[in-house]
Amino acid sequence: MAYYIVKVLLTSLLIVLVSEVSKRSSVLGAVLASVPLVSVIAMVWLYIDTSDIGKVRDLAASILWLVLPSLVLFIVFPLMVDRGFSFVISLTSGLVAMVLSYALAIALMQLVR
Predict the structure, then answer these.
(1) What are the pLDDT tens digits along the chain (113 aa)?
(2) pTM, entire model
């Protein structure tokens, strides 16, 4: 149980760190946020939990292809804000577009496999 508490605390700490740094410097916050922290942490935890490098490799390969649809959020959101839409509408639209992009990417991945 202590192991899971450590995992949750370390992972949460990184998210809070990005948020706090972003208050002071959007560029530094963006650098920290753009580093695939969640992916790296997930790969480390998966390897520690299973010692199966094949599972870690498969996770990394899947992440590679699913990074592309996640970028849709970062295209749609600023475009909508620049056009005068509110934060909520812009974020919601970006998230919806991202989810649809994920669905398309997953469908394409299943066709290729």
Answers:
(1) 888 898 889 888 888 988 898 899 888 887 787 778 778 888 998 999 999 999 999 999 888 888 889 899 999 999 999 999 999 999 999 999 999 999 999 898 888 87
(2) 0.66
**Count of domains for the chain:** 1
DSSP single-letter state for residue 35: S
The structure tokens listed for 87 are: 């934060």
Distance CA 44, CA 65 (A): 19
Range of the domain at 91: 52-113
d(CA 24, CA 83): 26
